[in-house]
Amino acid sequence: MILVLWDIDRTLVYTGDIDRRVYRETFTSVVGRSPTALPARGTGVTMPLAVRELLRANGVAEERVGTLAARIVATLPECLASHRELLATDGMVMPGAVNALAAVQEAEHLIPTVVTGNLRRNAETKLSALGLISYLDISIGGYASDDPIRPALVRIAQDRVAAKHGGRFRRDNTVIVGDSLEDVRTGLEGGANVIAIASVTTSQHQLLAAGADHVLPHLTSPRLPHYSAASTRLGPPKG
Description:
By secondary structure, this protein is α/β, with parallel strands linked by helices. The chain has helices at 18-31, 47-57, 62-81, 84-90, 97-106, 120-129, 152-165, 181-190, 204-210, and strands spanning 2-6, 13-14, 92-93, 110-114, 174-178, 193-197, 214-216. The longest helix has 20 residues, at 62-81. The model is unreliable at 227-239 (pLDDT under 50).
């Protein structure tokens, strides 16, 4: 069995500025003023760490960062859920994502879930709003609500899938599919091979230089690379 860990943002879906809108609204609600700086786009940093960066970038005293960050993180899922209709209308499924997800789901030896910088409830909201949640076993994923340090999420997912399906999951039977340098680092440090998908924010060259095992220009490539102990392919066949 092979564990396939999908990243969400810019790999499976693109939600534009909705996350940044949610950061702005929650910051304003908790801190009592509007932020003048927002987290950078497409970095793959987990939401709890992005919130801390948001507070520091907006001049919040360091001694208040921990308390305020916890309050903002607690309100993020409800705030995003309030924009579910906007996600459905303004968000988009990345080209090739449905076919790739379906191919992985249909392969008996592949176990699909997610490792993401999103909190679990935020991940569920995005995936359900854009019609992708049925392709993934959300219960065995790794989320920023489990640990703000992203490489740690690989082991969390591996332990969850082992508890559910049995067996041992390590680097040789775990693969991350993601688009950011943070996805590559997560695999290298967390214990997974990495299939990287180039994006507007991260080029093929950057992903290869960071240590990705394979890099594709997009998910619509005819096949994802050969990968697995069983010499199988993750992606859909040609045609």
